[in-house]
Design brief:
Elements: H1 2-21, H2 27-40, H3 49-57, E1 59-62, H4 67-78, E2 89-91, H5 96-121, E3 125-136, E4 169-175, E5 187-189, H6 194-200, H7 213-218, E6 223-225, E7 233-236, E8 243-244, E9 253-263, H8 284-290, H9 295-308
Antiparallel strand pairs: 1-7, 2-3, 3-9, 4-7, 4-9, 5-6, 5-8
Helix pairs in contact: 1-2, 2-9, 4-5
This protein binds fe (ii) ion.
Length: 312
Amino acid sequence: MKKLIFKPIENFNWFLGLKLFKNANYFSINLFNYFYKKNICNHKYLKENFVKEYHVEGFAKLNKINSKIINEINSELKDQSLNAGLNNQINFKITPKIFGIVKKLINHDLDKYLKLLEKYYNQKINLAYLTISRNYETSKEYNNNSYFVSKKMEPYSNFYHTDGYVFNMFKIFINLQDVNEDEGPLHLVKKEKSKKFIKLKKFYSREKYLRSEESDKQVEDCLFKNTGKLGDVLLCNTAELIHKAGDVGANKKRDILFMSFVATPDVNDSIDYFSFNEEVFEDKIVKKLSKIPGVRKLIRFYFKCKKISLKS
Ligand SMILES: [Fe+2]
């Protein structure tokens, strides 16, 4: 009975999100994001180019990480002999040594950006999820002419979607190798082109959109593909943008380091970015802090953010 009442509301919430905010996140979450950005974010920091880009476009390239530190990580990964799972994706084990290098990278190379983002968000920022993964080519188990493709057929996050989190969660991607078009770069749908993308791909959700090569060609200009060199860094809000992992070509692979950070009043007394220590090796923390279910909880979270926002 409950399902009979709530399902249509949920569907309508989804439909409105897509129609009005042109992404695949709920209307209620988009509305939260809109008011957070309007009323809680500190617009004084939009004078910083990367903050402005991030605020307006939803993503920004940051300065490259020194290749020495990336090579340090890569030489640690080299010794891990892990088998690709069924979905042809490997998640490397984050050893204490690797975690130490990543912490150094955050404290040295990313600190200046994170400090400014804390001021922009008006909240303390914490690392909430860290993973290093390798994607290989995966055979397609579905037909290119299919419109509906079950999520079960998705090998890794390579179906277009928007992450169901609030704006407070953002990601930083670091290339551990040079990434070309056929090595599966992240695809982002540019905000100003999302209307065209949704129309031409007949996009409704992760499971429902056109998969044909022809439709891919039609939306080529709607995409930003995160190709680049070893050490390149991308800051991105995947809760605002439609995106997917690119498909990896035959005999190719893509190694990448992902970090999710959350700007939140829900972490007390954090003195650095690492309040959660090794807990960030699983995605539980990021879910707990930034997946806010239900409108009532979203409203409560909004007012908590507003009340506790750092007054800078
Ligand atoms: Fe995603």
